[in-house]
Amino acid sequence: xxxxPEAGDEAxxxxxxxxxxxxxxxxxxxxGGPRAYDQCCAPYxxxxxxxxxxxxxxxxxxxxxxxxxxxxxxxxxASTRPLPDLSADKDTRWLGLEIRRHESAGPxxxxxxxxxxxxxxxxxxxxxxxxxxxLEEGRWYYMDGDFPEKKDRV
Length: 154
Ligand SMILES: [Zn+2]
Prior knowledge:
Blueprint: H1 9-12, H2 42-45, H3 53-66, H4 69-74, E1 92-104, E2 109-120, E3 123-136, E4 139-146, H5 148-153
Antiparallel strand pairs: 1-2, 2-3, 3-4
This protein binds zinc ion (ZN).
C-alpha cells in the first residue's frame, strides 16, 4: 500500500532528501544526551573509541536499553567481565540516566557516578553506582563499581 502523504509534507518537500540532523526529526539518544542516537552513542556501538569515560558510560547505558550485549561485553575490562549471559536483565525497562560526577583519577583512570532508573515487572528501581573506568590503548573500559547507598545501609 502506498504511503499517504501527511499534512505538512508540501511545506517540507524541498528538504525531503537533506540529511540535516535535527532535534525535530529524531528523538534524543536513550542515554539522555541532547543529540540523537545517530550523533551520540551510535558511532561507539559501531566500534569508534569513546573519547571519555563519561561517553563510554553513556554508550553502555544506551546499550543496556537496546539489549546490545556484545557491546557491553566488549567495553567491560577483561579482568572483571562477566560470562556472556546478561539474560537475567531481559525484563528490565530502562527509564533514564543521570550522570552525577565524572572525574579523572589518574592518566588512565576515571570515575563516573551515575543514577540509572529502570523498571522490572512494573516496579521502579534505581541504580546508584560509582563506576571505575580504565583507559587501555586509547579505549575506555568499565572496570567495576561501588554502590554508595547500599554501603551506607550496612
Ligand atoms: Zn547517547
